[in-house]
Structure formats: structure tokens, C-alpha cells
Amino acid sequence: MKKIMPFLMTTLAALSFAAASPSQSMAADTVQPVQRAAMSEAEAGAGMFGLGKSNDAYAQYFIGQSYLNPLTTEGLSISNVTFEPGCRNNWHIHHKGGQILLCTSGRGYYQEWGKPAQELHPGDVVNIPPEVKHWHGAAPDSWFAHIAIAVPAEGASNEWLEAVDDAQYRQLK
All domains of the chain, ordered by start, with CATH? Predict the structure, then answer.
């Protein structure tokens, strides 16, 4: 874990710097009304890191539509994941490596097996240790996006499990 922390911190700092670059924010201020008018609901829901493409490779592990926008191409896996309202992934476990979620847009939920669901908002950070059964996704009435960071570890893998119970999900506010 100690070996990846400098790389992780450098990567996150670079992403933050790119998102807040003065030249980008000046350009965005100049064309903002035009961009907002042309921006789809999906693009708005994705937040500053972009919608990406339909998450077809993992669709069997999701209820509803999700989108995946990889932010790195090799080494540490960092992606923006966007969930349409009501979309959530199945219960799953990250063996050995764990996962970090940086919530960037909308409203969503995270739940560990046997514990109550936690409501998530932009700025929330979820550190998911290895071997913890959990799920995450959008609230029923809101788009939701987070940056997903797969914590690397030798032999790391994901185990996808059953879908989140619809009746329990509908009880979330």
C-alpha cells in the first residue's frame, strides 16, 4: 500500500489540477451558456470527468444503465462511473485490493452487507477495504457519478454476487 500512495497522490493531484486549470475555467466561463444549453441530462449527471461509454462489459452486474469513462490507460485503474437514476451494481467483493470511491456528482448510496445504506454526495470519499461485501449506485431519483480507484494488490480480483433486493432499494429515501 505504501508504494502506491505516492503514485495515487500524484495522479489525483494531476486530475484535480486539470479539472481546475485557469485556462480551462476561463474558456468554460466564456462559452458556458452555450454548453449548458447543449448538454444532455446524461452529460450533466456525469460531472466534470465525462460520461464515457455505455458500461456494456459489466452490464450483467448492474440494474439499470451505467457508463464508464476510464481516466487512466495502464497501471492504477481509475475510472469515472456514472449511474442513471435508479441504477446500482450488484453486491460484490474486491478480493485483496479494495476500492476507493470519490463521489463527484448527484446523489447515491453505498452499503456494506449487514449495515444500513449510507447516502453519498459530491465530495464524499468511501474507502472500501478488501473482502467487504458491498454495493453502490444512484438514488432512485438522481443521477450519480463517482471516481472508482481499484487499489492494486497481487492476485486482486472482483467477485460479483446477487442483485440488490428491489424492495429494500425502494425503501431508500
Answer: 41-170 (2.60.120.10)
Query: How far is residue 66's CA from residue 54's CA, in Å, rounded to a whole number?
Result: 6
Alpha helices per DSSP H over the chain? 4-19, 22-38, 41-46, 166-170
* 28-42 per-residue burial string, b: 16 or more CB within 10 A, e: under 16: eeeeeeeeeeeeeee
User: CA-to-CA distance for 125 and 101, rounded, in angstroms?
Assistant: 6
Cα–Cα nearest to 63, from 101, 43, 92, 41: 92
**pTM (2 decimals)?**
0.77
> What is the mean pLDDT of each successive set of 10 residues along the chain, which is 173 residues long?
46 46 39 49 76 95 97 91 97 97 98 98 98 98 97 95 96 87
Helix, strand, coil share of the chain (percent; to 5): 30, 35, 35
d(Cα 112, Cα 6) in Å, to the nearest integer?
Answer: 28
